[in-house]
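Tip: read the tokens left to right.
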């Protein structure tokens, strides 16, 4: 211990007063080690300390304390080796030994900071957020956050009594980025940012926008996550994906909400590993090619289903850790199942700990609610014109594709991004600079996002949930499109479900609901969605949207699925619908698996399984899902009998589809066909195996030299009631 007696601390300077009162933007100017003539001065602010010492390589030197928690040490630079440790004792007599955070230089590179500010940083999550880091051999955690209008930002957590005076951060010039390396911290600690507004002096306690892990709700702290050392086993899958010809391959998606697909015997969530094993086994048996997850980004409210996201870089902790989610994805890939996730760049919630008014101002959102708020949803709209927000969203998209090997993003609510007047009354929106209703900044963002994601991750699917007639959503940006891979066909979904909900006696008057979609079916790369949105909010389950008695409801549902799996476009079916769930879906409970004890539900499940098998193995049913070359009407005008008939083709190969939307069987129904020979049934939704009446056709159906429906040959068939049949040309 040195005998050096430091002078008494001078009266509070303005800078020291700012440190103590918590509004200094650069604590490094006051705290840490500073030249003092021929000597050095070390200053530390330790509001919970009663005593403190410098611990150096050669000796310990007492730091003079003051009543305000400020400690100083003066001495020769030779007596102090950097980095140095501070020993301090609290009011309970506990002694702590810590490296001083304020003796470490800035860590973020000027290039990264510049790229972030330009809106061009695709991997901002690698520099912002919290990252276990080693500097000069000292382990700790580097924190960085964007809060340009903050007067002071501090890191608070369970390591410093959640006291914002302890670890104020450094502001990097005019970039709005604050950073601080805190030595001695490890992964697993809880933290938030305490932000003092520059303009209002208010204090905001915020979760980390770039946190890669969160506490389980209702708790809201961020968690320092270690860099993953997960050992991926899906190299073959990832290499094959780069060459994936998704335009011509079957894509049949099982849409899943992980919290309610299945629960354990106590009604609790399954974890990611349990879900991987049980869900993959089921999906493989059912024949789906992909699983699409409702948002698994961290969210505070179960009832939002994940669509009001807080953690854009964090898998929800409801089901386990980030590495356990990696296991889930890896397990799917090892069993040749693709994984898509819902991603929500259109809006975010107003929760006090989230992005809303992050630094006391409208930072991620617009200040004007006519631009910045979805009143219908109670959420805020991203400011797509702000470069740092674009870096945030682009990095989030890259994060899921790169860090978790996700095979694609389904971008939610694209229409709400495209239109400034989306769901707004006259006068409640602001036109763009040309006086139009298009959100030019959002359009630019979507085009940039799709361009760079497709360039950097070939084979990954970027899917638009877009409900309007916006042109060229799934066409390349260099042709003037938005650049998405695929677009949800909301028109087909709406028209078809409205038609199917009608009593069959009235369907003949609405035949156009079924045929109109083919006028635009190949204008986009469409997917046919029977999604979660169609089985909630009083719409009833798909089964109970079907008219008639019990037998007719199940027959109608099998007919609907037969149409979907034979109609041009990729397929999506929400969980539970594949076995005819009767109740509306609720996120708060498991699916009604018990219904599979009943034959009608077994029949629906078996029909979907067989349709998936046919869709995957019959080239005509998927090869040209996006091209008119793969579809021809046989007859779209038979509204009197409510029958549709068409061909699905793959060059010279074809199958014949006939759909009867009435409970009246059609006997000796003459159907035009393109080739002479023998036809046979590949599939009949009225089969007794599916719960039908078992009406059908002989194994061999010969053609007759009778031209019909514009075709040179024809066959005479039985078309079962409320059923669809698929016929194959044999010879």
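Filled-in amino acids:
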């Amino acid at each position: 211990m040195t005998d050096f007696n430091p002078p008494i601390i001078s009266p509070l300077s303005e800078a020291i007063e700012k440190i103590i009162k918590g509004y200094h933007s650069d604590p490094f100017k006051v705290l840490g080690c500073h030249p003092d003539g021929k000597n050095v001065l070390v200053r530390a602010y330790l509001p919970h300390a009663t005593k403190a010492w410098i611990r150096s390589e050669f000796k310990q030197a007492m730091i003079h304390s003051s009543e305000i928690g400020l400690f100083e040490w003066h001495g020769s630079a030779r007596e102090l080796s950097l980095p140095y440790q501070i020993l301090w004792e609290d009011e309970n007599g506990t002694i702590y030994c810590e490296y001083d955070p304020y003796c470490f230089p800035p860590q973020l590179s000027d290039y990264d900071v510049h790229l972030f500010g330009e809106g061009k940083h695709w991997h901002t999550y690698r520099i912002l957020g919290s990252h276990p880091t080693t500097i000069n051999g000292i382990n700790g955690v580097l924190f960085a956050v964007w809060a340009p209008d903050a007067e002071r930002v501090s890191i608070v957590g369970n390591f410093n009594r959640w006291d914002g005076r302890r670890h104020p951060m450094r502001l990097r010039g005019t970039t709005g980025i604050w950073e601080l390396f805190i030595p001695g911290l490890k992964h697993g600690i809880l933290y938030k940012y305490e932000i003092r507004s520059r303009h209002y002096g208010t204090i905001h306690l915020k979760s980390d926008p770039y946190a890669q892990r969160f506490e389980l709700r209702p708790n809201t702290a961020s968690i320092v996550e270690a860099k993953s050392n997960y050992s991926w086993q899906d190299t073959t899958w990832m290499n094959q994906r780069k060459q994936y010809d998704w335009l011509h391959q079957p894509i049949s998606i099982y849409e899943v909400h992980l919290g309610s697909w299945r629960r354990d015997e106590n009604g609790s969530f399954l974890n990611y590993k349990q879900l991987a094993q049980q869900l993959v086994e089921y999906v493989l048996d059912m024949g789906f090619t992909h699983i699409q997850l409702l948002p698994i980004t961290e969210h505070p409210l179960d009832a939002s289903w994940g669509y009001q996201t807080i953690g854009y870089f964090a898998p929800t902790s409801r089901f386990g850790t980030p590495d356990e989610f990696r296991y889930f994805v890896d397990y799917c890939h090892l069993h040749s199942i693709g994984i898509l996730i819902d991603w929500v760049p259109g809006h975010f919630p107003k929760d006090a700990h989230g992005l809303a008014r992050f630094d006391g101002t409208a930072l991620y959102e617009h200040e004007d609610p006519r631009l910045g708020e979805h009143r219908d949803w109670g959420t805020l709209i991203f400011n797509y014109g702000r470069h740092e927000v674009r870096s945030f969203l682009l990095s989030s998209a890259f994060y899921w594709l790169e860090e978790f090997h996700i095979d694609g993003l389904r971008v939610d609510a694209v229409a709400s991004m495209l239109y400034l007047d989306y769901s707004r009354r006259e006068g409640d929106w602001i036109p763009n600079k040309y006086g139009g209703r298009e959100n030019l900044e959002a359009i630019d963002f979507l085009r940039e996002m799709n361009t760079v994601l497709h360039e950097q991750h070939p084979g990954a699917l970027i899917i638009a949930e877009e409900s309007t007639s916006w042109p060229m959503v799934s066409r390349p940006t260099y042709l003037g499109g938005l650049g998405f891979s695929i677009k949800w066909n909301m028109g087909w979904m709406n028209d078809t479900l409205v038609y199917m909900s009608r009593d069959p006696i009235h369907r003949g008057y609405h035949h156009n609901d079924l045929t109109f979609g083919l006028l635009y079916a190949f204008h986009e790369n469409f997917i046919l969605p029977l999604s979660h949105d169609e089985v909630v909010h009083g719409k009833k389950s798909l089964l109970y949207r079907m008219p008639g008695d019990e037998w007719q409801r199940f027959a109608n549902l099998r007919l609907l699925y037969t149409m979907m799996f034979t109609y041009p476009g990729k397929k999506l079916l929400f969980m539970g619908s594949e076995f005819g769930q009767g109740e509306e879906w609720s996120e708060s409970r498991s699916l009604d698996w018990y219904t599979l004890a009943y034959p009608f539900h077994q029949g629906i499940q078996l029909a979907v399984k067989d349709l998936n098998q046919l869709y995957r193995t019959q080239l005509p049913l998927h090869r040209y899902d996006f091209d008119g070359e793969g579809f021809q009407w046989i007859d779209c005008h038979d509204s009197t009998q409510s029958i549709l008939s068409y061909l699905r083709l793959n060059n010279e190969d074809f199958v014949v589809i006939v759909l009867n939307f009435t409970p009246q069987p059609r006997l000796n129904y003459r159907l035009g066909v393109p080739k002479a020979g023998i036809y046979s049934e590949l599939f009949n939704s009225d089969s007794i195996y599916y719960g039908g009446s078992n009406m059908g056709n002989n194994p061999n159906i010969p053609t007759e030299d009778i031209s019909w429906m514009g075709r040179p040959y024809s066959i005479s068939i039985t078309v079962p009631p409320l059923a669809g049949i698929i016929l194959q040309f044999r010879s």
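The chain has three domains: 14-103, 105-245+254-488, 628-729. DSSP finds 16 helices and 37 strands in the chain.
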